[in-house]
Specification:
With 235 residues, this protein is α+β, with helices and mostly antiparallel strands. Helices cover 16% and strands 31% of the residues. Strands 2, 4, 5, 6, 7, 10, 11 and 12 form an eight-stranded mixed beta sheet that branches. The protein has a five-stranded antiparallel beta sheet with strand order 3-1-8-9-13, with no helix packed on it.
Amino acid sequence: MCGRFAQVQTRSDYLDVLASDLEFAGALDNVPIGRYNVAPGTRVLTLNQREDKLHLDPIEWGYGPDWWREMKRQPVINARVETAATSRMFKPLWVHGRGLVMADGWFEWKKDKHDANTKQPYFIYHESKQPIFFAAISRHHPDEKDPPHDDGFVIITSASDSGLLDIHDRRPVVLPPAAAREWMDPSTSPERAEEIANDVATPPDDFVWYPVGKSVGNIRNDNAELIKPISSPLV
């Protein structure tokens, strides 16, 4: 996953697709979120479950614990599903910080086989055109006025062993609504969460894509033109 996605629709639109029986602890309106170019380092609305209620909280995309930052390393934005549940860095988040990132699709850049400097962005979305849910893990302190500097989230990724391999070798773990609800439930064991992420995720063949303009490469650009198809891709 290259690190850009779209979160465009209203909060209600995403929650309707999630179809949870839990109460939503917040206000809903008909105003679209309208983010067509969500980038790392920005605060992103993420879904989590606390005390039998659903919460939408803005959390920074990117995570690095103190010991990681002491090594002068930048926050990471993705965690590999193969190791996230057991790694020193992500295990605490896997156990206590599972949540969802709502999206309408994500962007990947395809490289020219003969010129690595030539790249073409593509927008990838579910063939049903329904909202999707990325499996995510986070460190988050919603009740603190001044959250710790290392609060943040990462998106879980898996190998693109089929379907999307011609665009990128990693893809976000997208969970169908029922699996997304179970993933987010604090009572779901870490072991069961591994099974969900590895065995229940939406398969690559359920996604389609098309080329889009290069303007998405600039994080200052954020409008509906970014997800419109173009007719003459570079690659």
